[in-house]
Write a structure and sequence with these properties.
By secondary structure, the chain is of the alpha/beta class. Helices cover 38% and strands 20% of the residues. It contains 14 helices and 23 strands. The protein has helices at residues 51-70, 73-89, 91-102, 106-127, 163-176, 191-203, 217-225, 239-252, 274-286, 303-319, 338-354, 407-414, 430-439, 473-478, and strands at residues 13-15, 17-19, 22-24, 31-35, 42-47, 134-136, 142-150, 153-157, 180-184, 210-212, 232-236, 255-259, 265-268, 298-302, 357-360, 379-382, 398-404, 419-420, 422-426, 444-447, 462-463, 466-467, 480-488. The strands form six sheets. Strands 15-16-17-14-13-19-20 form a seven-stranded mixed beta sheet, sandwiched between helices. The chain is globular. Mean pLDDT is 96; it is low at 1-8. Bound molecules: NADP nicotinamide-adenine-dinucleotide phosphate (NAP) and magnesium ion. Residues 157-161, 184, 186-187, 216-218, 221-222, 225, 236-238, 241, 244-245, 259-262, 293, 393, 395, 421, 461 line the site of NADP nicotinamide-adenine-dinucleotide phosphate.
Length: 503
């Protein structure tokens, strides 16, 4: 049933849409080409979903809903657990897909992407039978209880930067809570989500519970977001598209959950363990070539240590091993696509024009073996808060460094943007750590660490970074709604109208 990333002949494999546990071509017969970011070759083609296909997927999800929501929660959990086991079985294939399609270094895909996706599904497998309601003590004559019910058919739309992990993160809480799902992966990276769909079928999920419809955002994505058969839309992606999703919900009144962009401030104080701050800042800025919503892409460093910290950062950034993501030594692979690389390099040009100093990188590597790939060297830019590179999400291996003089200025700079996803600070001062953790206007704060995520910890942003939580117990709440039930336990019924027939 499953298909490897290449056909036996070595030519590009082709894969269908995944609807009602079957792989099928798109109604329009159109295909998405999956292009290797390492060398620009076409590695696969995937059926492109259009409106008729999204309709078919929503129909399948709606048909599956009555039985699925009545399935014993423990049985739903057992299916999720079996699914996670199959992902572990196919860990090598899944890691290779993240490597070939998204350009993730194979070592990251094996050590991080796949185990994290498995852990997320296991966490929600364990939660499926713990979504408790409550009994509300109203008065002695009534038993009043509130149960958490699934919302129904959920539409989910995800980006390309963590294709497998985000698919697992979206699907698991929705399914654990008893919803059925139509997932639209990003046009550049749909294959790991399709693989997950097939594994769900193999694990025993009934047809229609999990559906995966690769396609373009403007067509399949936008249509799914406004579909009248969808009760909720969960979106991860850019703030601009997030706003259109929220707008579309005015028509179908679907609930909306938005995990949007970020421009994470990373504050370095003079009393910090500077070696730790340096290592953490490199990871925050450059892991996954900076293509992370929670990247620490905006370093704010106290003037007392700005020079020594920046010099060390430049050296360490230049020493990162950029290369073929299949090479186990590679630390930084290509960006997801050539198109995205152009966007990132445009920001470097803009920084130059605005008078910021490019201290390191800012261009493709010299290695001729990487010339056909979407590579950009890790880039450090000394920039002022007014520069656009300090304000806009670049989503690449680009970090800005801006000095500050005291805590108040650090917080002001950190909070100056509309984004509010993650923030970090490095200090040995406990009082400062907790005070700033409270003052930073973000959904997540890391102290003496950065970009840590775990299945049980709420994940989400504020302001232009969206609303709702993708992880933790909060995530299953997002996929349920409260229904309250009043039961009169006392005999009879107290008279409400005082007047009788003769009055
Ligand atoms: P994007 O353009 O917003 O795309 C995200 C998804 O939405 C893709 O599946 C895309 O389809 C689809 N889409 C595009 N236009 C649409 C429309 N009009 N209606 C419905 N769906 C539409 O974002 P991206 O550039 O691919 O991804 C990077 C962004 O995601 C960054 O801003 C990043 O910060 C954010 N992100 C946030 C989180 C988080 O949890 N907060 C996590 C990861 C990434 P196509 O693939 O066909 O374009
Ligand atoms: Mg697009």
């Amino acid at each position: 049933m499953t298909r490897g990333p290449h056909t036996a002949s070595g030519g590009p494999a082709s894969e269908g849409l995944f609807i009602a546990n079957t792989s099928r071509p798109g109604a329009a017969g159109a295909w998405l080409e999956i292009v290797s970011p390492h060398d620009g070759t076409v590695v696969a083609q995937v059926a492109e979903a259009r409106q008729a296909d999204v309709d078919a997927a929503v129909d399948a999800a709606r048909d599956a809903l009555p039985d699925w929501r009545r399935t014993a929660p423990a049985a739903r959990g057992a299916l999720l657990a079996a699914w996670a086991d199959l992902m572990e079985r196919d860990a090598q294939e899944l890691a290779l897909l993240e490597c070939l399609d998204a350009g993730h270094p194979l070592r990251d895909a094996r050590a991080l992407d796949v185990p994290r996706a498995v852990a997320v599904i296991r966490y929600f497998a364990g939660i499926a039978d713990k979504i408790e309601g409550s009994v509300v003590p109203v008065d002695p004559d009534h038993l009043v209880y509130a149960v958490r019910e699934p919302i129904g058919v959920v539409g989910q739309i995800i980006p390309w930067n963590q294709p497998l992990l985000l698919a697992a993160t979206k699907l698991a809480p929705a399914l654990a809570a008893g919803n059925t799902v139509v997932l639209k992966p990003a046009e550049w990276t749909p294959r790991s989500a399709l693989w997950l769909g097939r594994l769900a079928a193999e694990a025993g999920f009934p047809p229609g519970v999990v559906n995966v419809v690769p396609g373009y955002g403007e067509t399949a994505g936008a249509y799914l977001a406004r579909h009248p058969g969808v009760g909720k839309v969960a979106f991860t992606g850019s703030t601009a598209v997030g706003r259109t999703i929220a707008g579309a919900s005015a028509a179908n009144l679907a609930r909306v959950q938005l995990e949007l962009g970020g421009k994470g401030p990373n504050l370095i104080f003079p009393d910090a363990d500077l070696d730790a701050a340096l290592a953490g800042s490199l990871y925050a800025a450059f892991h996954n070539a900076g293509q992370a919503c929670i990247a620490g892409s905006r370093i704010l460093v106290h003037t007392d240590v700005a020079e020594v910290f920046t010099d060390a950062l430049i050296q360490r950034a230049a020493a990162l091993r950029v290369g073929d993501p299949r090479d186990p030594a590679t630390e930084i692979g290509p960006l997801v696509s050539h198109e995205h690389r152009e966007r990132v390099l445009t920001y470097v040009e803009l920084a130059r024009k605005e008078g910021a100093a490019i201290l390191s990188g800012g261009r493709p590597p010299d290695d001729p073996a990487l010339r056909a790939g979407a590579y950009v060297l890790p880039t450090v830019i000394h920039a002022a808060p007014s520069h656009r590179v300090c304000q806009e999400e670049i989503f690449g291996p680009v970090v800005t460094v801006t000095p500050f003089t005291d805590d108040a200025e650090a917080v002001e700079l950190a909070n100056a943007l509309d984004y509010g996803l993650g923030a970090g600070l490095w200090t040995r001062d406990l009082s400062r750590a907790h005070t700033l953790a409270s003052e930073l206007a973000t959904g997540m704060v890391w102290v003496n660490t950065y970009k840590r995520v775990a299945p049980g910890v709420p994940f989400g942003g504020v302001k232009a970074s969206g609303y709702g939580s993708d992880l933790g117990f909060d995530a299953v709440r997002e996929y349920t709604r409260a229904k309250s039930v009043w039961v009169r336990t006392a005999a009879g019924y107290p008279p409400f109208f005082t007047g009788g027939p003769s009055a």
